[in-house]
Amino acid sequence: MTEKQDTEKYEVELKQIDKRRADLEAQFLSQLDGLLRRKIFDEQEFTKANQAARSQKAELKVRKEAVSKLLSQARASEALIKRVPKAIKTFKEAFHNLELR
């Protein structure tokens, strides 16, 4: 896989993680709203729903940090690859301009 493909893959994955986090939040609020409407909401239900949501959010946060790091590395690698041809050209020009002894 090329660096550009890696970068694109990580960008897509970060968007998916952000979307999943937003979906979890909406799902949590919807679930709480449903419990309130049915008047079966108590501290135990809230704790159960809250713990599940927190656990999933924590997992997504860890994954997001890992993917962000991989994305940074892929972007740095991609930038380096773009600079290499110019560096080679500059080196070749300097080498050809050396004076012979």
Question: Please, could you describe this protein's structure?
Answer:
- The protein has one domain.
- The chain has two helices and no strands.
- The longest helix has 54 residues, at 43-96.
- It has 101 residues and is mainly alpha-helical.
- Helix 1 (3-38) packs antiparallel against helix 2.
List the helices and strands and how they pair.
Blueprint: H1 3-38, H2 43-96
Helix pairs in contact: 1-2
Q: How would you describe the shape? A: rod-shaped
What fraction strand? under 5%
The DSSP helix count reads 2
Give Rg in angstroms: 25 Å
Q: Unreliable segments (pLDDT under 50, ≥5 consecutive)?
A: none
Class computed from helices, strands and strand pairing: mainly alpha
Question: What pattern of helices and strands is seen along the backbone?
Answer: HH
Largest sheet: none
How helical, in percent, are the residues?
A: over 70%
Total separate domains: 1
In total, how many beta strands?
0
Give the N-to-C terminal Cα separation: 46 Å
Mean pLDDT: 86
Summarize the structure.
The chain is mostly helical and 101 residues long. Helix content is 89%, strand content 0%.
Defining traits:
101 residues, mainly alpha, 2 helices, rod-shaped
